[in-house]
Design brief:
The chain is α+β, with helices and mostly antiparallel strands and 306 residues long. It contains 7 helices and 13 strands. It has 3 domains: 108 residues, no CATH class; 88 residues, no CATH class; 72 residues.
Length: 306
């Protein structure tokens, strides 16, 4: 397939339907061989697979995916389901680089790693399904648990004898859990021995709760799936992978289209051909990505050529 100058979802689907599948006769009349939803699903599958296998969507700045609030007395954190690989991490205020390791490395190199407290220096991605573990993890400074009273009028959270002012200061963030109506992240306004107030709204209740101070922010460097799945609704919507590879996704559409089990659509040889072409394009993209990320010099014209 020659290079196609296209990028939008609608253009890619139209090219697959018109130029390759030749499925225009009944299109829009309800008698097309492939519905838009079928081709769109195949396009999303192709882009997801491309991202997963080439690791081309590197990200270290999308807050919803890359930022993790590290809390007092907690070592396990949710990891966004769009993350494919974790390449590293950076703390905003503590030890600068947090390195990815696996459990075997930890067992061989870090004594008592499961119970060690301190500034995080390592992370274990997917140590449980969809979870990330930091090693060491922050101690109990800023961790409070007990039956707390939340007062709506004063935005006050009270636990007698908690010594809130020892570890909480103006501007600190805390994460509250275990309540009926007050779970979430809140910002400290004042802190005394027995209570603290927050800037966000509070719902009146007395309930067993846990308050954990945000001790630092961990920013992950990851490879991920596309932020959003393609819908085809917007005329300007484009796949998130690099523009140069958009046309290659058509092979991914066709491998599924020709595998549709219907007498007018099923063509196993065509499906296999486009599957092989899609595999070849992924292999080429991986090589190009490797060259780009592992370049050690700058190419210059040979003396005498200029």
């Amino acid at each position: 397939m020659g290079r196609l100058y296209m990028s939008t979802t609608k253009e890619l689907l139209a090219a697959a339907r018109q130029d390759k599948l030749d499925d225009l006769e009944g299109y829009g009349k309800g008698s097309e061989l492939w519905k838009d939803t079928e081709l769109l699903r195949a396009l999303n599958n192709a882009q997801n697979e491309w991202a997963r296998r080439t690791l081309c969507l590197r990200d270290s700045s999308t807050e919803a995916i890359c930022k993790i609030l590290l809390l007092a007395n907690q070592y396990l954190y949710d990891m966004d389901s769009r993350i494919i690989a974790v390449h590293g991490g950076t703390l905003e205020t503590g030890w600068p680089n947090v390195e990815p390791k696996d459990e075997i490395w930890m067992e061989n190199n870090f004594f008592s790693w499961k119970t060690r407290m301190g500034d995080p220096r390592y992370l274990i991605a997917d140590c449980e399904i969809g979870k990330l573990r930091v090693v060491p993890y922050f101690n109990t400074e800023g961790y409070y648990a007990g039956t707390m009273t939340f007062t709506d009028t004063t935005k006050k959270i009270e636990l007698v004898g908690a010594l809130f002012s020892t570890y909480l200061s103006v501007g600190d963030s805390v994460v509250i859990s275990g309540t009926v109506s007050n779970n979430g992240t809140k910002t400290v306004v004042t802190a005394t021995t027995d209570y603290f107030t927050v800037s966000q709204a509070v719902v009146l209740e007395t309930v067993a709760a846990v308050v954990k101070k945000v001790r630092d922010n961990l920013w992950l460097s990851v490879s991920r799936l596309p932020l959003n799945q393609l819908t085809g609704v917007s005329v300007s919507e484009t796949p998130e992978i690099n523009f140069d590879y958009h046309s290659k996704l058509i092979h991914g559409i066709l491998r599924e289209a020709y595998d549709k089990r219907d007498s007018q659509t099923y063509d196993p040889q065509a499906a296999a051909r486009h599957r092989a072409l899609f595999e070849a394009e992924i292999a080429r993209a991986k090589k190009e990505k490797y060259r780009l990320r592992h370049s050690t010099g700058v190419l210059r014209p040979h003396p005498g050529t200029i």
